Amino acid sequence: MAATQAIDTLTPEDAQAEHARLVAEITHHRALYYQKDAPEISDAAYDALEKRLAALEKHFPTLAGAHSPTATVGAAPAAGFGKVKHRVPMLSLGNAFEDEDVTDFVASIRRFLVLDDEAPLDFVAEPKIDGLSLSIRYEDGRLVQAATRGDGAEGEDVTANVRTIDDIPNTLTGPVSGKGTPAVLEVRGEVYMRREDFLALNKAQAEKGEKVFANPRNAAAGSLRQLDASITAGRPLRFFAYTWGELSEPLGTTQSESRQRLAELGFTLSEPSRLCRTAEELLDYYRAIGAQRATLPFDIDGVVYKVDRLDLQERLGFRTRTPRWATAHKYPAEQAQTILKAISIQVGRTGALTPVAELEPITVGGVVVSRATLHNEDEIRRKDVRVGDTVIVQRAGDVIPQIVSSVASLRPADAKPYEFPTHCPACGSLAVRSTAEKADMAAEMAAVEGGTDAAEAPPGESIETAAEPDGVVRRCTGGLICPAQAVERLIHFTSRLAFDIEGLGIERMRLFFSQGRIREPADIFTLEKREDERLDRIVTMTGFGKKSVEKLFAAIEARRTIGLDRLIYALGIRQVGEATAKLLARHYLTVDHWQESMIKAAQERAAQPTERKPELVGEAYAELCAIEQIGVGVADDMMAFFREEHNRALLDRLLAQITVETYQRPSTTGSPVVGKTVVFTGTLETMGRSEAKAKAESLGAKVAGSVSAKTDYVVVGADAGSKATKARELGLTILTEQEWVDLISGKTAAPE
């Protein structure tokens, strides 16, 4: 299957395989970009991957949702800084690449809001600065805290460093408009470095024999994230403000008015901006900024379009990781040639054998690339990639560097076709490809997101395309006897989006595993106690000072209390990524309820192993499958985990060592539908189906995709079908669209 093959010609199986590959690549490159400030591909290469992923999900909708990077933001905060939980999540933006994407963006907003073509709809367009996202909190006009975006929910505390940036006021000035300064104001924007300042910094660094930076974005990020604030103070950092987080009072009624208010308060804005009224005007702005791009004093990688009216922004709301009311229109990038020195095989936590191209390092668009995924043996065979080949490496749109093809005319005479191993390089067990896939499950099974299942990683780190269908990926059959799988699961457990234990990184985990110190998650939390029983205590080992060991134990102790969503994600259940874990936590709320429900559902599934209709399997299983974006494929992988006695025992031992917090839904004080399960069916007249679902979830309701005895309300629009029929058969409460609107607006009381 070619990565450039037309999407509408893909089979569901091929689409699933490519989706899994893209997810793995994106996950790895996000970690490099957001956590290490050391990307291995250009922004354009990253964007190209995301574009392909979005197009796949549009054509194959069952691949989207909770099982895709389109549902997650950035990467978890790096070690070394205090953590800050964002009161308002810092989300990413959706991307547009072609003119028709912009036209579709405008059309989708009109559809969502049910606006005809003549209804006024204004947008603010502004340059997209290539820098590091930052949130700055002011209370009573004084700067009290600053944090990076991190994973969108939690970032790094860089307050001391931010106070040294001249563009960022420590005290807000009185606005020209005469309006008072908000008591609470979180200003959000981008820390960046001007091009001329970047060149001067690199020259000075080289003269001192110190590290030079690949590009201005890396220089800005590296300068801000210094543990010594005096280093940051010596770097030429600047700041553009473009939006806000928590507010005690509105800045205005429109985006453009609020931007002006930020300028009045002392912030520099991203300019030149423009108010546009049509898709054609947006495209004219894009082309105009593109023509100026080389002469701008700072780097941009695109432009951003935002709906101007804030009341419409509120109605449009958010997807899992992106606002519906804004998008980034990206500029394209490039390719390069290098030599394929070797092909290595990595074994991931689900046993997948992933081939990795080891490349002669080359700079592509200012980023040094030395490794790239080869995805699977079929991809190697299709492209006929051989060791010694000159290969074309592309960096145009998403996460990882991608090998487009080999240059046949430059192939060495002795280059031989690559023979994929049939045995696991870690344990010697047979590595097999399944031929018993069910076609009807192919579309349901989507890619595992997050964790260590990345398609590319620096030397010593893990790459695994975990959720490719078994017909594509070759897997080790060793299971728990395979040390690679066992240690990769532990690495995933302590990864940034899971338990995030500072000081217990990849190399230390592998070391402790090889020494028998840590063999399962619960061992992490008994490590300090057991150290007293060992002669070869950690503190006596090379590379472990007393302070570093004390810090490690303190970091472990700090993670004895964990959120339910992080715990679920940390277990590494196949197809349960970060977004899926949050869906599960939001539905079950407590670890006891979740664990009991999963065990019961697993028992029901074991009694009905081939039944495809969830309601005929059992109550607990049907409840799981009814959660929005979770289908039979995901549910069955969860059941496979809970059917195993050793997995249940492992979880019990872990829970004996930690405290799991009850999942906190967003505040829905006064909501008449909080905790209620709602199903929408038929065509709604006053709002789109997407808007209706988003509004219900914002009020604390659970939106389900199917009707069951536990459904509280079925909202019926025009031309309702089988769901309405089933609701009547079950005697459920059925509401018209107007009755639903009256209920959530408080005009009527909840039905008895």
Summarize the structure.
This protein is of the alpha+beta class and 752 residues long.
What order do the helices and strands come in, and which of them pair?
Blueprint: H1 12-35, H2 43-59, E1 83-85, E2 94-96, H3 99-113, E3 123-129, E4 132-139, E5 142-148, E6 154-156, H4 159-162, E7 184-192, H5 195-207, H6 216-224, H7 229-233, E8 238-247, H8 255-264, E9 274-276, H9 279-292, E10 300-307, H10 310-316, E11 326-330, E12 335-347, E13 353-364, E14 367-373, H11 377-383, E15 390-394, E16 402-406, E17 431-432, H12 439-442, E18 475-476, H13 483-493, H14 506-514, H15 521-531, H16 546-558, E19 561-563, H17 564-570, H18 578-588, H19 591-607, H20 614-617, H21 619-626, H22 632-643, H23 645-655, E20 659-661, E21 677-681, H24 689-698, E22 702-703, E23 713-716, H25 722-730, E24 733-736, H26 737-744
Parallel strand pairs: 2-11, 19-20, 21-22, 21-23, 23-24
Antiparallel strand pairs: 1-6, 3-9, 3-10, 4-5, 4-7, 7-8, 10-11, 12-13, 12-15, 13-14, 15-16, 17-18
Keywords: DNA damage, DNA repair, DNA replication, Ligase, Magnesium, Manganese, Metal-binding, NAD, Zinc
EC number: 6.5.1.2
Cofactor: Mg(2+); Mn(2+)
